[in-house]
Each structure stands twice: as structure tokens, then as C-alpha cells.
Design brief:
The protein has 275 residues and is an alpha+beta fold. The protein is built from six helices and 17 strands.
Length: 275
């Protein structure tokens, strides 16, 4: 199946996790009604964005194991709707070991695996090194919802090495769940992901939060770029939205025939990149 639909759920979050989850389940139903086969949620979509608060140990209590109560609820809903689902949450992996993590759930409700954020930011309003360990899952690619999907969580997208690693792993779509409010990033919002899609000839789907929390305003504008670097759909700015986009996966093959960048790589000469 070369034609699929993906849904990006651009949401805000309150302090009430249960209300946030119920909103998510409603959006899953709406996505299924529009024939989506995959839905993705933004970074930390079901809780306030706590890394904006510097070094507050209370927020460790938000973390859950995987599998655990939150993931199991999404597994049940995904199975009910036959909808592959990618969420993002705060993971408790072991005592004192915490990750920014995206579980991947297939349309039959099976938990296919997890992808942990590899690159951890430390910036104004993003005090993440206190809350998150560096990811150790590498760059997994999952067959879900009719496509091979890889994940680059928020800050990960700024590292072309990760986008390339996911591509070499077979990803057709790179999903980017993010919580972006930094004004400077508005200027490179499209350009950076357009460059990534051109370099790798894959679809890139960036899914941002919406809403204001403290001094942070998550500006939305989730969007999808095709393998030729064209922005083919974008969600609303500064408000919640559900963006459902049709993708023709055969465009990947067509583009790689026209622009054989992957063929012409020289990994034998790239030693200095890892020295």
C-alpha cells in the first residue's frame, strides 16, 4: 500500500492528565473517521511541559514504566480503532532512571517498542538535563500503520546524523514530536526539515504542541514535508488542531531515482565525523 494517511494531533495540556487523555482518545476517533492509519502526538502531550521549571524533583512523580497504565490505555484504544499510535511520555525505566520516550503501538494494539530522545537540551525554558537521561535505544525503525516509521524527538531533529541513521534503517516517514516555543526556531521551522527531507528523500512530519504555559507559548504550526522538500500541509498557529495528510510513499522511490544521494554516499571517507 503506497497511499496512506497520517494524523498529527496538535494539542495543549492542562494539569489534569485524565482530561488530556480523554481529549487524545477523541482525536484518535476523529483521525480514524478521516481514514488515518497512523496518529502521532506531540512531546509530553498529556502533562504540562514540566522541563520549563528548573530542577524540581516533584516532577519525577509524573514518570511511568513502559508498559504501564498510560501505554496500556493507548494500546486498548489503538486496537479498538485499528489505528497505529505514537505517543510521547515521561518514562521511568528503573529507579532513578528517566527518559523522554515515544512508545510505538501498532493497529492491533501491540507495543512494538520505544524510541528514547538521544540528544538532551539545556536551554532557557528547556531544563532537560536535570529530568532526562540520554537515550540509549539508538535509532529504531518500526513497521506500523502501513509504513516504516522512525522518530526524532524534539531536539533530536537538529542533528542530521539522527535523520540519516533513521533513513539508513529504512524509515519512510520520520515523525518529530516536539514542544517548541523558542521564537528563533520560527525562522528555520520549515527550512531545517525541508533540508532533512531532501538529503534523505523521506517524509518528515513535525508535530508541535499548542497553548501557553508560564512564559512559554507553543506556537503549533505542525507540518509535513515530502521527499522533495515540499511542505504539503500545515496545521493552525497558536491553537489546537488535527492535521490529516495523505502520503504517497511511492514518491520516495521516484525521488531517489532522480536524486541518488544515498547511492553516492562515501561512508569509507567519513571517519573524521566520529573522531
Amino acid at each position: 500500500m503506497s497511499i496512506i494517511k497520517i494524523a498529527l494531533a496538535q494539542v495543549s495540556a492542562t494539569d489534569n492528565r485524565e482530561e488530556n487523555l480523554q481529549k487524545a482518545f477523541s482525536l484518535m476517533e476523529q483521525a480514524k473517521d478521516q481514514d488515518a492509519s497512523i496518529i502521532c502526538f506531540p512531546e509530553m502531550a498529556f502533562d504540562p511541559f514540566f522541563p520549563r521549571v528548573r530542577t524540581d524533583k516533584r516532577y519525577f512523580d509524573l514518570a511511568e514504566p513502559i508498559p504501564g497504565p498510560m501505554v496500556e490505555k493507548f494500546q486498548e484504544k489503538a486496537k479498538q480503532l485499528s489505528l497505529a499510535t505514537v505517543i510521547n511520555m515521561y518514562e521511568l525505566a528503573a529507579p532513578g532512571e528517566y527518559y523522554d520516550c515515544s512508545p510505538v503501538i501498532d493497529a492491533d494494539g501491540a507495543l512494538l517498542g520505544i524510541s528514547r530522545m538521544m540528544h538532551i537540551a539545556e536551554l532557557p525554558n528547556y531544563n532537560e538535563k536535570f529530568y532526562y537521561w540520554e537515550g540509549n535505544t539508538g535509532f529504531p525503525v518500526f513497521q506500523a500503520g502501513g509504513a516504516k516509521i522512525g522518530i526524532a524527538i524534539c531536539y533530536d531533529r537538529h542533528f542530521p546524523e539522527q535523520m540519516r541513521a533513521l533513513t539508513l534503517g529504512g524509515a519512510e516517514i520520520i515523525l518529530v514530536p516536539t514542544a517548541t516555543s523558542t521564537p528563533a526556531l520560527k525562522h528555520i521551522w520549515h527550512v531545517e526539515m525541508q533540508a532533512a527531507s531532501i538529503a534523505n528523500q523521506v517524509f518528515v512530519a513535525l508535530n508541535n504542541r499548542a497553548g501557553t504555559e508560564g512564559e512559554m507559548t507553543f506556537f503549533g504550526r505542525s507540518f509535513v514535508v515530502n521527499p522533495r522538500g515540499e511542505v504539503i500541509a500545515q496545521a493552525k498557529e497558536n491553537e489546537e488542531d488535527l492535521l490529516v495528510v495523505e502520503l504517497d510513499l511511492s514518491l520516495i522511490e521516484q525521488t531517489r531515482r532522480d536524486l541518488p544521494f544515498l547511492r553516492d554516499r562515501r561512508p569509507d571517507a567519513y571517519g573524521p565525523l566520529i573522531e
